[in-house]
């Protein structure tokens, strides 16, 4: 009980003194506009749920650093304490709400012996009496039938933040007042500690088999081909023949940071053989990064790369533009015909000439 009151006090102090605040209505309307845009882009509520979870995961992987720096909290002793910290310090610090925490165990067995008892997994439920993301929101019948979880970004934030502190967690919504339920409730189930030997590696919430070559496994992400994966591995000083299972925690963190936001990733170092934890001596010159100067004729092909939903959205916008302008590619897209590039029409005409049968009269 004393620790619970202590965490509540820490959360209130962080919210009052160390948190930059924005207008609550602006925050709610901005998130609502984001969800509406995703619905228009994907036209599938199940896919929208996945994209919201993925966005939240990316936010959580970055938010945990700020949270730990502000709160100066140590390592939690068990999963029950994790739930208390998440509710009374995490939610209070960033959303100014304190969900009710209900601790329990589920019958599903945990991976790699992480359960607390025979065939049980530690779980905590967060009951949100108020949800800033859902203020002024009313879901249409179509969204209710499509099983849209409007605030699914919160599950991704929980999953991403806890993964950065070496905890694999499954977070899902089990009820929402926007769907006619009595309360908004999130369930978080503990899977296993990532510092224990496991058979799978997680990047942005995607499981990669440890026996696969990393250059092949990275092509799982939309927008990464074989050459791009090799360039990325060279950037992060990972051997081109490395397996997924051989990745170290710092390398996994670097890959996650790059894939979540390629545009803000740091450039490669001038000393490629130095480890990420290398600290030069006082007399040594400062570490320099390889930057591409304007007008040099060289380009960094990883600097402006777009992946996953960002790339898919750009492609869909290009297709819509071609259809609106009425180009040949746009007409083929409108008719549902395959489009392989600018030379589709030329290739078809050439094939017609080569395959033409000349009959002798």
TrEMBL record:
Listed GO CC annotations: endoplasmic reticulum; Golgi apparatus; mitochondrion; ribonucleoprotein complex; ribosome; TRAPP complex
Alphabetically, the GO molecular function entries are:
RNA binding; structural constituent of ribosome
The protein's UniProt keywords, in alphabetical order, are:
Endoplasmic reticulum, ER-Golgi transport, Golgi apparatus, Mitochondrion, Ribonucleoprotein, Ribosomal protein, Transport
Gene3D superfamilies in the cross-refs: 1.10.8.50, 30s ribosomal protein s13, domain 2 (4.10.910.10), Trafficking protein particle complex subunit 3 (3.30.1380.20)
The GO biological-process annotations, alphabetized, read as: Golgi vesicle transport; macroautophagy; translation
Respond yes or no to whether keyword Nucleus is given for this record: no
The region called Disordered is annotated at: 333-361
Q: Quote the CDD domains the UniProt record gives.
A: TRAPPC3_bet3 (cd14942)
Composition-biased stretches, type Polar residues, lie in 341-352
User: What subcellular locations does the record give?
Assistant: Endoplasmic reticulum; Golgi apparatus, cis-Golgi network; Mitochondrion
UniProt-listed InterPro entries: Bet3, NO_sig/Golgi_transp_ligand-bd, Rbsml_uS13_C, Ribosomal_uS13, Ribosomal_uS13-like_H2TH, Ribosomal_uS13_CS, TRAPP_component
Pfam families to which the protein is assigned, alphabetical: Ribosomal_S13, TRAPP
In UniProt terms, what function does this protein have?
Component of the mitochondrial ribosome (mitoribosome), a dedicated translation machinery responsible for the synthesis of mitochondrial genome-encoded proteins, including at least some of the essential transmembrane subunits of the mitochondrial respiratory chain. The mitoribosomes are attached to the mitochondrial inner membrane and translation products are cotranslationally integrated into the membrane.
The record's comment on protein family reads: Belongs to the TRAPP small subunits family. BET3 subfamily. Belongs to the universal ribosomal protein uS13 family.
State what protein this is by name.
Small ribosomal subunit protein uS13m
State the species of origin: Rhizoctonia solani AG-3 Rhs1AP
């Amino acid at each position: 009980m004393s620790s619970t009151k202590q965490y509540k006090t820490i959360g209130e102090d962080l919210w009052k003194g160390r948190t930059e605040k924005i207008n609550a209505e602006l925050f709610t309307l901005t998130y609502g506009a984001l969800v509406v845009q995703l619905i228009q882009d994907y036209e599938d509520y199940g896919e929208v749920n996945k994209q919201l979870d993925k966005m939240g995961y990316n936010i959580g992987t970055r938010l945990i650093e700020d949270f730990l720096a502000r709160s100066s909290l140590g390592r939690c002793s068990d999963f029950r304490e994790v739930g208390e910290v998440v509710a009374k310090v995490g939610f209070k610090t960033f959303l100014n709400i304190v969900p009710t925490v209900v601790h329990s165990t589920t019958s599903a067995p945990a991976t790699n012996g992480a359960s607390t008892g025979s065939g049980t997994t530690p779980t905590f439920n967060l009951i949100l009496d108020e949800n800033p993301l859902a203020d002024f929101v009313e879901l249409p019948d179509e969204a209710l039938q499509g099983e849209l979880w409007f605030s699914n970004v919160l599950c991704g934030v929980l999953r991403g933040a806890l993964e950065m502190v070496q905890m694999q967690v499954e977070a899902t919504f089990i009820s929402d007042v926007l769907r006619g339920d009595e309360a908004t409730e999130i369930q978080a189930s503990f899977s296993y500690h990532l510092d224990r030997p496991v058979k799978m590696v997680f990047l942005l919430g995607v499981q990669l088999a440890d026996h696969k070559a990393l250059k092949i496994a990275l092509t799982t992400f939309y927008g990464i081909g074989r050459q791009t994966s090799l360039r990325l591995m060279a950037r992060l000083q990972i051997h081109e023949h490395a397996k997924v299972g051989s990745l170290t925690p710092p390398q996994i963190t670097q890959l996650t940071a790059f894939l979540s936001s390629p545009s803000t990733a740091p450039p490669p170092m001038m000393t490629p053989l130095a480890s990420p934890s290398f600290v030069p001596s006082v007399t040594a010159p400062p570490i320099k990064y390889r930057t591409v100067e304007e007008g040099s004729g060289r380009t960094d092909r990883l600097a402006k790369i777009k992946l996953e939903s960002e790339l898919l959205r750009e492609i869909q916008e290009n297709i819509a533009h071609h259809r609106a302008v009425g180009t040949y590619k746009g007409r083929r897209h409108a008719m549902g015909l395959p489009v392989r590039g600018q030379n589709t029409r030329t290739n078809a005409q050439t094939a017609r000439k080569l395959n033409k049968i000349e009959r002798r009269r």
